[in-house]
Inverse folding.
């Protein structure tokens, strides 16, 4: 009777040690993402300024798009 019970306890411990690290990693990723703003929180003007600062668009395109956003 007790040997069957201890067999389930052993299997339960294996399952626990397989799932526990996964849960810890998921929780750490959730906590890490809470501190930084997502890209959807940036305004279109902030995105435009970031693209200009990274050199993705030139001055002429920046001015044109800025003018369109300010309409």
């Amino acid at each position: 009777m007790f040997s069957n019970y201890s067999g389930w306890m052993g299997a339960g411990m294996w399952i626990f040690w397989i799932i526990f690290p996964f849960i810890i990693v998921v929780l750490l990723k959730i906590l890490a993402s809470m501190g930084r703003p997502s890209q959807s929180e940036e305004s279109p003007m902030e995105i435009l300024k970031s693209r200009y600062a990274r050199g993705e668009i030139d001055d002429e395109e920046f001015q044109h798009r800025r003018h369109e956003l300010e309409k």
Summary: Residues 9 and 46 are 56 Å apart (CA to CA).
